[in-house]
Amino acid sequence: MAEFNVDPYADLYARRASGMTASEVRALFSVASRPDVVSLAGGMPYVQALPTEHVLEVVESVLVERADVALQYGGGQGSPALRERLAMLMAEEDTSADPEDLVVTTGAQQALDLVGKVLIDPGDVVAVEAPAYVGALSAFSVYEPRFLQVDLDDDGMIVEQLEEALLRGERPKFVYTVPNFHNPAGVTMSRARREQLVALCREARIPIVEDNPYGMLRFDGEPLPTLRSLDRQNVIYLGTVSKVFSPGVRVGWAVAEPGVLQRLVLAKEAADLCGSQFTMLVTERYFGGELWRRNLGALVQTYRSRRDAMLTALEEHFPSDASWTKPSGGFFVWVTLPDYFDTPALLAAAVDRKVAYVPGTGFYPDGRGRQQMRLCFSYPTEERIAEGIRRLGELLADEEELFRSLSGA
Ligand SMILES: Cc1ncc(COP(=O)(O)O)c(C=O)c1O
Predict the structure, then answer these.
(1) Rounded mean pLDDT of 254-280?
(2) Is the CB–ligand 1 distance for residue 240 below 6 Å?
(3) 314 vs 332: CA distance, rounded Å
(4) Cβ(264)–Cβ(117) under 8 Å?
(5) Which of 159, 162, 231 is nearest to 189 (CA)?
(6) Alpha-carbon distance 325 to 333, whole Å?
(7) What is the pTM of this model?
(8) Angle at the Cα of 230 (from 262 to 96), degrees rounded to 5?
């Protein structure tokens, strides 16, 4: 970055670009990657758990046997063989998908962008959970919607709130939801809520965009039906291999009925012609073998132990009037602190004490969330998690003491 930060093109930007700002999560990545800082911030999969020799074998076989395809352009929808594999992954969650109805994207993140491009006109209403996945808010924001925020509780989106909004005359273009092991809230939508949401949206002819990156990372409890398996017609399903294999291959996908699908493919081709044939072939081969199940099983066990380590440390070190979610899968715990805490303001002090988290504010379009923080347990070891939570707990205790002495409480 130049030292004198006067932008000579400031008056030339499109309206949608002038609203673009770096997310708090992104800004944190450089600080949080310092080895002395325990990062409970970025939602990074623990890719070190992948057996290197196995990945190497897959990569080598792609280059030895399929270099002509791997190093070439390909079709915009992704190869039929990969689409079949990805449909197979959905079948693991009892969701049937026709590979013809599936487009491979550059991560689920691109699928979110394509959905925005195809469905949102400026001023359209998009219903999102409050809090919501920050990457979806940024992807959709480019298309200038107005967000209708629907609160979450331990059973996921409070569908009654959405229903009330519809009765008030709100007319969302679509409803965006992360039903399993929500990012950032860690909660899972109950079966009753899933049925209620699907029925409400079908009746109102409002499509649902179901984003399911974490569904296969369940630590305990029974799997619940995907929204897509409850209503094939009205649900656009987004998947990714980022959390069950590697985010580095950038392979995600969308499944939709033919009209929407065709537009998603055209939008994808307009954006980047096609995804990386190389990493798509690697992904196809990885899931074509048998070892992925074992690798995933080991990963789930690691994440379960890390979740347990975080919940134990929170009990021990966090203020008694704080509360937090208890995820049964995924990566995240969502903490709500008493009113006198301000998580964006506290972050610098936390980093000074060598621990990082994500303040709650980035996950709400209206800047709520000052008493909330997202903690991620997927990446640090159990010992580091315990140490990070201890450091954070100490900081919160000092802040609380300061507040009490200033307020005379
Ligand atoms: C809810 C949610 N959706 C989408 C994504 C994007 O994933 P991908 O790596 O597939 O682009 C993430 C990544 O953290 C996520 O948490």
Answers:
(1) 97
(2) yes
(3) 13
(4) no
(5) 159
(6) 6
(7) 0.95
(8) 60
Decide: helix, strand or coil at residue 208: strand
- Which residue in this structure is represented by tokens 């979450």? 152
> E-strand spans in 48-111?
102-106
Joined together, the tokens standing for residue 391 give 């450091």
Contact call for residues 399 and 341 (beta carbons, < 8 A): yes
**Which residue out of 104, 128, 242, 276 has the highest number of ligand 1 atoms within 8 Å of its CB and is therefore the one to mutate?**
242
- Among 1.20.1630.10, 3.30.413.10, 3.30.70.670, 3.90.1150.10, what is the CATH number of 15-50+293-407? 3.90.1150.10
Residue of 86, 133, 241 to mutate, ligand 1, most atoms within 8 A of C-beta: 133
CATH topology of domain 70-289: Aspartate Aminotransferase; domain 2 (3.40.640)
Residue linked to tokens 């969650």 = 93
Name the residue ranges covered by the structural domains of the chain: 15-50+293-407, 70-289
Segment 182-228, tens digit of pLDDT: 999 999 999 999 999 999 999 999 999 999 999 999 999 999 999 99
